[in-house]
Amino acid sequence: MNISEQQLNNMMSAVTTALQPLIRALPVTPVEWADQNYYLPKESSYGEGEWKTLPFQIAIMNSMGNDQIRTVNLIKSARVGYTKMLLGVAGYFIEHKSRNSLLFQPTDSAAEDFMKSHVEATIRDVPCLKKTFSLAGT
């Protein structure tokens, strides 16, 4: 049986397309994901730009994103980047691990403010999240 080069290319293309859903990204930690993908929006940050995890944030973020850790208790001061860590880990769950995430606020108005000032800006400024949410129709 003789197969032409064109037929072979078509077959390889079809097999590649069929196998695409089985391809998974290499595992990364929440810190690695945030350092590669997360971006600080100008509306909700002291400084707009790429996220760089600070040394004291590494264990916190990796604990938040660890499947073996169910609860993370944290005593913190103000202005340590806690909200940004939460959003970075939520982005990691949504984009890298393909999981749903839910963040609570104490009141409806606080939730609306949080959505407008933090979540919407994050989705807009982090390309992989923007792509994920555009595919979801939001």
Automatic annotation (TrEMBL):
Q: Which residues form the signal peptide?
A: none
Q: Where are the transmembrane segments?
A: none
- One Pfam family hit: GpA_ATPase
What domain of life? Bacteria
GO MF terms held by the record = ATP hydrolysis activity
Q: What are the residue boundaries of the Phage terminase large subunit GpA ATPase domain, all occurrences included?
A: 48-134
Name this protein carries in UniProt: Terminase large subunit of prophage CP-933O
Q: What organism does the record attribute this protein to?
A: Escherichia coli
